[in-house]
């Protein structure tokens, strides 16, 4: 007897299991939903408690699961401590049995993927794509148990997607099959970037820098403040205004910091998309001082806004998208003189090269759209379906 014909991806019911639906995922998921037969999101929690984001899903079919959450405060080899949530959605098998998906996409190498892998083993016609957002830096210092679980899940994975070169190297080191792997890039929230004309900037006697993100140890804002202060003290003829958008546990200590006369720090707190877009328009440079980010969507937003980035090499977005002197500068936040050297290189650039950076930045960011991201995932589902049909 011939096997039943496989469902085309355009007609497939795709179920996406995610920890929570972040704002940048909304537009991507809407594009995915437009490309498949039916799209359902199983979200472990509505939103994590350390986020300022609103729970807004638009017309997406989002179902919040019954979840057991473990709160941890691990210390990273990079020296920072930050809250970490481990979500274990306990009703996953029951939800999948009710939904009867043709394809499952599970995010990360944990409980969501373990349950999805088990469901796949019991339902051969269903395909399972394991999607991983990670970097070598972000995964540094994970325990042996997590390493064992990741290797086991990747050996069983039908198809795997990664979010960048560092993530790909990490997955290969865990034993992932390179012939069953493809890219699924992040796409920034399209409402946050500034889309208007770029104003040419030639005067570098004053610089306006922008940082967007949580004010936490991992984001490296304390080191950035110290390093900016040292640079400003050594360069009294140049003034710096540092606009900081975001909330977090370091807000009060940053407010209490004494600054040199030529360094002004403006703490704006949490801002909505329109206010963030205005900041991208009005500043000269993005400063992204993170000590560990498996990506860093503010880099995408900055590039799409035509805002060059001075970015940490511990952000996968920076090491993937930024070339020194083209879209900005790369620096090491753990090296005390590295930020100063990056600023010095910016100031020493010929006017023509300096004025070219915003256009180069926007060109680099232009391709990273929700539409392109959705196409990548739908193509991964298609390849998994084709592989599944051959195996049957």
UniProtKB/TrEMBL annotation:
InterPro entries for the chain: Glyco_trans_1, Glycosyltransferase_grp1
Record-listed E.C. numbers: 2.4.1.301
Domain Glycosyl transferase family positions: 206-362
GO function term, MF aspect, one: glycosyltransferase activity
Pfam families per UniProt: Glycos_transf_1 (PF00534)
Domain of life: Bacteria
Enzyme class: transferase
UniProt keyword terms in alphabetical order: Glycosyltransferase, Transferase
The keyword Flavoprotein is assigned to this record: no
CDD domains noted in UniProt: GT4_PimA-like (cd03801)
Name by which UniProt lists this protein: Alpha-D-kanosaminyltransferase
Taxonomic placement: Bacteria, Pseudomonadati, Planctomycetota, Planctomycetia, Pirellulales
């Amino acid at each position: 007897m011939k096997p039943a014909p496989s469902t085309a991806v355009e007609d497939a019911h795709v179920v996406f299991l995610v920890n929570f639906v972040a704002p940048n995922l909304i537009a991507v998921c809407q594009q995915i939903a437009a490309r498949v037969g039916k799209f359902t999101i199983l979200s472990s929690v509505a939103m994590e408690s350390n986020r300022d984001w609103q729970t807004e899903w638009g017309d997406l079919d989002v179902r919040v699961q019954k979840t057991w959450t473990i709160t941890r405060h691990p210390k990273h080899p990079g020296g920072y401590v930050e809250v970490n949530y481990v979500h274990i959605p306990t009703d996953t098998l029951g939800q999948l049995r009710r939904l009867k998906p043709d394809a499952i996409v599970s995010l990360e190498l944990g409980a969501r993927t373990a349950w999805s892998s088990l469901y796949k083993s019991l339902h051969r016609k269903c395909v399972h794509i394991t999607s991983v957002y990670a970097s070598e830096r972000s995964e540094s210092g994970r325990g042996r148990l997590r390493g064992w679980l990741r290797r086991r899940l990747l050996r069983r994975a039908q198809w795997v997607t990664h979010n960048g070169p560092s993530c790909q190297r990490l997955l290969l080191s865990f034993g992932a099959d390179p012939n069953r792997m493809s890219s699924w890039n992040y796409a920034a929230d399209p409402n946050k970037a500034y889309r208007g004309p770029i104003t040419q900037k030639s005067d570098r006697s004053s610089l306006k820098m922008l940082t967007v993100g949580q004010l936490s140890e991992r984001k490296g804002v304390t080191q950035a403040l110290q390093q900016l202060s040292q640079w400003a003290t050594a360069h009294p003829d140049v003034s710096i205004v540092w606009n900081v958008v975001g909330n977090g546990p370091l807000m009060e200590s940053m407010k209490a910091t004494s600054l040199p006369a030529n360094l002004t720090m403006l703490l704006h707190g949490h801002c909505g998309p329109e206010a963030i877009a205005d900041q991208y328009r009005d500043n000269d440079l993005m400063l992204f001082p993170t000590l560990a980010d498996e990506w860093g969507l503010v880099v995408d937003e900055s590039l799409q806004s035509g805002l060059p980035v001075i970015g940490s090499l511990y952000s996968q977005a920076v090491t993937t998208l930024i070339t020194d002197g083209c879209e900005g500068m790369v620096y090491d936040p753990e090296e005390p003189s590295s930020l100063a050297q990056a600023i010095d290189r910016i100031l020493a650039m010929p006017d023509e090269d300096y004025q070219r950076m915003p256009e180069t930045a926007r060109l680099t960011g232009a391709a990273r759209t929700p539409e392109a991201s959705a196409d990548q995932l739908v193509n991964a589902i298609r390849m998994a379906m084709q592989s599944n049909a051959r195996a049957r």
